[in-house]
Amino acid sequence: MNKQRSGWRSKALCSVIGLTMMSPVLAAKPIVRDGEYRFLEAQYGDEWAKEDKEIDQKLADMREANGGERPNIVFVLIDDVSFGQMGKPALNDVMGVQTPRINQFASEGMSLNRMYTEPSCTPTRAATLTGRHPVRTGIKEVKVALVGEGLGDNEVTIAEVLSKAGYSTAHIGKWHQGDIEEAYPHNQGFDFAAFPLHQQVQLALMSPESARANNLLGWYEGTQSNALALDKKFKPNGLVTGVEARKGGKAREVDLKPGETWTQAHYERMNERYQRQTIEQLREMAGKDDPFFLQYWPLYPLNFVHPEQARSLNGGFMADKLEVIDDWFGAILDEMDKLGVADNTLVVFMADNGLMYHYEGTSGQSQLVYRGGKTDFTEGGIRVDAYARWPGAIEAGSRAADIVHASDLFTTFARVAQAEKYIPRDRVIDGIDQTPVLLKGHGNGRRDYVYVYQNELLRAVVKQEWKMHIAAPGMPAAAAGVYNLYRDPREQHPLIGHSLWSGASFQDMTKRHMMTIKAYPHNELGKDKPYTGIENLRPESVETVETFMSWH
Amino acid sequence: MNKQRSGWRSKALCSVIGLTMMSPVLAAKPIVRDGEYRFLEAQYGDEWAKEDKEIDQKLADMREANGGERPNIVFVLIDDVSFGQMGKPALNDVMGVQTPRINQFASEGMSLNRMYTEPSCTPTRAATLTGRHPVRTGIKEVKVALVGEGLGDNEVTIAEVLSKAGYSTAHIGKWHQGDIEEAYPHNQGFDFAAFPLHQQVQLALMSPESARANNLLGWYEGTQSNALALDKKFKPNGLVTGVEARKGGKAREVDLKPGETWTQAHYERMNERYQRQTIEQLREMAGKDDPFFLQYWPLYPLNFVHPEQARSLNGGFMADKLEVIDDWFGAILDEMDKLGVADNTLVVFMADNGLMYHYEGTSGQSQLVYRGGKTDFTEGGIRVDAYARWPGAIEAGSRAADIVHASDLFTTFARVAQAEKYIPRDRVIDGIDQTPVLLKGHGNGRRDYVYVYQNELLRAVVKQEWKMHIAAPGMPAAAAGVYNLYRDPREQHPLIGHSLWSGASFQDMTKRHMMTIKAYPHNELGKDKPYTGIENLRPESVETVETFMSWH
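The joint structure predicted for all components is written out below.
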């Protein structure tokens, strides 16, 4: 295996290691920003600096009111759910799915009605973890089976930042940042981690039940004879399932015994276990003196087998699980009440990207307001339901239509945790501190733009209510469709007049972004032998690794 | 003119006249229902009869608590606004339009999240007025210019029913039930009426400003030379604008002087006047001993000229007016508070059908969740925002996803006003009493079906979450697309399996409906010379009538 490291990467590594001995002088260096942010900062810098003092004071007052302690942070990230499917009562009735607990949670906090993610799970999660556009970290969509790649140890995650600042940290559920040791959550700053090595394609789609439910035509050998197939390795097998580990330790697979076949029942038990472990972690961490950061990334509603008895009016195999998610999130909130930590905890609940609309109809999920879904750069791929609750800090029942990007959570979490000094200063941080929106409400955002990538391709640029779909290489800029998102939320009617007046401004935005990339080139993805750091690999997994290594 | 009257129509007329001397025995006759309702009644009759006693008691208790008085009813019907555009906070942010007063109103009452209308203004309004599918009244879409037709005096409106029961009644704003005397609101039961003879195509679209705003290419002679046109009557002109009248009196045109050209300024003043007159009527009627029924049907947001300075983030020429409607509705609610009538008034606020999506983009309105708009039989044409507030009777912040149809307002208003005995018994009443939903909440509806017409054509049948688009004549029933509205709200993916299991049930539903029509044939539309009963016709209107009569 070619374990390539560039000079820049080595420098970045040193910098990460250097965090432990970071001097106050170093910490005072400004965060490196994208050109577009600096362009705004030149227009608003004085105003923002003044406002920041006010916010620092407010945060200090809140700490004082909480016995000097910083807030806990609970971050629940739901998989593949489009804007409107959770927490918006009228749309519950449209879908025939009820999310009363999420609706209630929304009414106790702020609805971030213009939250942007990346168009797919891995990049969105990388953005929240690193505060950076995933393209800068080398992260793209991580494939289903073995890749020997993952989030590099040259990246600094929010868990590392908060750990430095004295937070207890735990990650439960989906991770999806690669199959190599350095990418695992317990090697990326989490004290405890329980997570599946891969994702739900393996765990929910590649099961006999899902194949028999008509969702994976012919994949399962029981559903076809397979007589003419030569290559027995084409269909992935022997993949590691769920593992658990503590910071710096080895991972241990806990969900499957050697020789056992993965089934829907395993998937359901895994989901239930993560929910249970989240509650357990909550109890454990609430009992400590330190504040905590608990990250729960459930696998539901992704699911490809119809329930024996549906509970929702909708009944679709994913829509029905949204109601389960609602129950489970409610149980977490109840537990927080019981533990007495609700008041001093910032809880963020959101989805990671739009629905898998490829299963629209039978899954019971639908695009609702925006067009497209997972993998798309239209709003349907990247606009999600997002809510933040922090009693006493965030006004109950408030809404903000300011643009927020998933990477902003990194910077905002660091700010409220007084951990900004641990944000690295040697690389671009795209995440913007949105504490002003949380504390002062709608209209206090510091971002009126988003760059929309599919893997390493810049596909669209959003500025205010305008969105330009980047023209194909070589095409004239006026051929790039520009959409007014308030008037055409489904991006169906590009008007040439829009492109003509805004084309140059959009090009300038892109230039500012590209100049930043030139000054701070992208990091490289971590590369290693797959399944490193797992102490109890099943024989079938060992064989799968051997197959993989045989041609690498 | 051929003033045709059938024998049946004459009988119906007698029956209307007969209402004044209706005997208790006659009143005790059951309301004539559509076969589909009777099919449900056969399944739930005993249960409903028991529940009705309970509801009667609750209504009696409420009257007692209100000094023996029945509730007032205020019915605000907005023109051409799709589901999601008013009163749903998250979708406010999607559109860049804020409706805080409607949102607040919704939170004080019940959201009727599955309210169905007809696909166009005239039929929806006829349905609320008569409690009948418009097809039964002979009402179709009423055209823009002279037609010599309208809602017949053989129909019994909710205003007539409530007048009989001792209510003061007033109608302000859009009427759109025809250009003949018997169709005017003051001849259909309203004590006072201020309304335009026609609708906004004349008042908002056919103006020099709208033509210059690019919304009516070439219509206005100032924008083209018109050199080759022979027929000078092809473009409608000389139309009557706004009139006012008292019950049984003559109408008087109040908005335009002879020789004057109608402009956007006239349209804006007309809108403002209706709002002012609504407040005035509210004051006048609140001062009386009788309970009142106030119907306000604004002309906005229909509008085709951009404001000099838009107020919304959206800025579209209709979307911007949604914010004006919000202000104005808020002012009405404030006035009700001031007058002390808010507690004893049922206020229903809703739209009459989906948006004019033909102007999507520039108007600033968009389809949002459902597909289609005005004139369509898809949900986008017939699903609207609808809210009902009645403090003490309706639970604040509640929602109901039960199917409700615009015609149900007729029957429900009659029930809460103790006026059911004045509902005619000689014709089919489609409107279902939805008081159980209002008083007991979600899940207490008595309708799980809707027939969807475009004029006299039955185009779709809705049952529970299923909707069948009627196949073209001669096509096999399995070719009729059947959609699950929870899973496919945009009606894009008909699944043959749906049609196969439900086809026969849908056909049976249609048969039950058609058998009822056979037993109670449709009524005939009123016909007369246009502009009868207007005492101050302008010379240009007289000429227009003469032209019309010359070829009839």
